[in-house]
Design brief:
Number of strands: 11
Order of helices and strands: HEEEEEEEEEEE
CATH class: Mainly Beta
Largest sheet: 5 strands, mixed
Radius of gyration: 17 Å
Length: 143
């Protein structure tokens, strides 16, 4: 019976290692960007490769994403929308200044978008629903 218990503990440890969520403390792959209300040009756009190896289900979102954020937005405050455009089915995962995780999928066709207003740091991942990597445009707009 002890052997069964030890096997169960070992399997749980392996499973928890495989379920490690994305890490917002890592440097973002495509940099840190600062924007304030009234920024131009609007939308601000960033070409990225969406997707990764991490199941976004770890924070209740759809798709697969990278471990490190794709981008970090330092937002000065006011209404804005973060979104992504791609020819593939993309998803969006955002860790907002309140420490909460926000998800989006299929808002504009197969493209995600989320609206926020609080000032602070937004860590952003663009995922791919089917598990492949895909070229995408990450954008921020006030419109």
């Amino acid at each position: 019976m002890n052997k069964t218990f030890l096997t169960a503990v070992a399997m749980a440890a392996i499973a928890s290692t495989a379920a490690i969520a994305q890490d917002y403390t890592l440097d973002p792959t495509y940099g840190t960007h600062s924007l304030n209300a009234g920024f131009l040009p609007d939308p601000a756009e960033l070409q990225i490769t969406a997707g990764g190896l991490v199941d976004a289900g770890n924070v209740g979102c759809a798709g697969v994403i990278a471990n490190a954020p794709d981008a970090r937005l330092m937002w000065g405050g006011g209404s804005m929308t973060i979104g992504a455009n791609s020819n593939d089915d993309t998803t969006l995962v955002v860790n907002a200044p309140d420490g909460e995780w926000y998800c989006s999928d299929d808002v504009n066709g197969l493209n995600p978008a989320l609206s926020f207003s609080a000032a602070g740091q937004y860590d952003v991942w663009v995922g791919v629903y089917d598990g492949d990597n895909a070229p995408a445009t990450l954008y921020v707009t006030e419109y």
